[in-house]
Amino acid sequence: MSNPRNSNNKQKVVIVPCSGIGKTYGTVSREAAYEVVENVRPGQTHLVALSLLVLGDERSKEAVAQNPAVTIDGCKLACATKMVQESGGTVARDFAVLDVYRKHREYKPKGIAELNEGGIKLASVLAEEVAEVVDDLENNIQSDQDSEGGSNG
């Protein structure tokens, strides 16, 4: 129950976004994570709140320890990445909102409680990049499970 699985009892990719409350890039990070988990790859991903890892929540720590994790950091402090590692998890891929913005300067994010159109588009582009990584991780998980199953037969 504490280990996120999809309907086929396969691992899910854990998404851990920044908690940069009051920061535009933190908001972009969270919006991208919500987009991935709720709309783009809902059956393949599971959201873990950074705040739960900071508080030492056992279910959240177990989720990052037993599943591949993708972090989305809003600034160079990389709190999401550091907390996944400190919680016993392995970061399969880390994203920095600023790096994605540098590639897509046409989407200048503004706003905190509510992002402007540029921020929403930047979050969408970031969500698609995260989804590509989720797909790659899913393929690796499937390959690992296939090879484990094949060696027992």
Task: Give a structural overview.
The protein is an alpha/beta fold and 153 residues long. It is 53% helix and 12% strand. The protein contains six helices and four strands; from the N terminus they run βαβααβαβαα. Strands 2-1-3-4 form a four-stranded parallel β-sheet, with helices on both faces. The mean pLDDT is 91.
- Content-based structural category: alpha/beta
Strand content: 5-15%
**Largest sheet report:** 4 strands, parallel
Q: Count the helices. How many?
A: 6
Radius of gyration: 16 Å
The best one-word shape is globular
In helices, the fraction of residues equals 40-55%
DSSP E strands, number = 4
Q: Cα distance, first to last residue? A: 29 Å
Main β-sheet, spatial strand arrangement:
2-1-3-4
| Mean pLDDT over the residues | 91
The ordered H/E elements are EHEHHEHEHH
Unreliable sequence segments: none
Which tags fit this structure?
alpha/beta, four-stranded parallel β-sheet, 4 strands, 153 residues
In short:
The chain is of the alpha/beta class and 153 residues long. It contains six helices and four strands, in the order E-H-E-H-H-E-H-E-H-H.
